[in-house]
Design goal:
Number of strands: 12
Radius of gyration: 15 Å
Helix content: 10-25%
Number of domains: 1
CATH superfamily: LURP1-related
Oligomer: single chain
Distance between the termini: 31 Å
Strand order of the largest sheet: 1-2-3-4-5-6-7-8-9-10-11-12
Shape: globular
Order of helices and strands: EEEEEEEEEHEEEH
Largest sheet: 12 strands, antiparallel, barrel
Length: 190
Amino acid sequence: MPGQFEHNRYTVRKKKFRSRNEAVSVYDPDGQLLLYADEKASETLNIPVFADESMKEQVMSVILSGTPTNLFDVFDTVRQEKIGAVERALTPLLRERWIVKDVNYEETVALKESGMLAPLYRLCFPHKDVPAFIVRRYRGYAGRKRICRLKQRLGYIMRVDLSDDAGRFFDRRLAIAAAIIIALKELHSL
């Protein structure tokens, strides 16, 4: 499907009915299914991303690297090329920070958690996941310029807004891969 990565807004939905393996669907602003990621389709910490739920055409692959950090390499399987990486960084005050990197592992975008409710919950209950009723927000910065926003509500719906990125600096494939990783991260306690 040639227009999958041309939008400025996406909705990422985590399937609620799964027990161990998780699945995520990515929709365009009109509610049309664009991408489908299913961990069940892989035995490793490889998250294949397909064009639809039939899982016949793989378009991306997100792979946990062998390093001791939380680094995920992102590959475009159609073009057979690496497009970058997403890494979870440790930050003060228990706020999450995800670093999106280019193919040379140089930082391009930093996704920073905003708000205090989720970090406060993590401080009080360090071994528990943040409950679904707490809205989680992330802001993406390229240097000092804000270029995107992610808002996760009800624990399984995430809105990705790239409308602040008029120059299309942030590769949409990496933005979607980061949203999928954030949506699925509780599964493996990254």
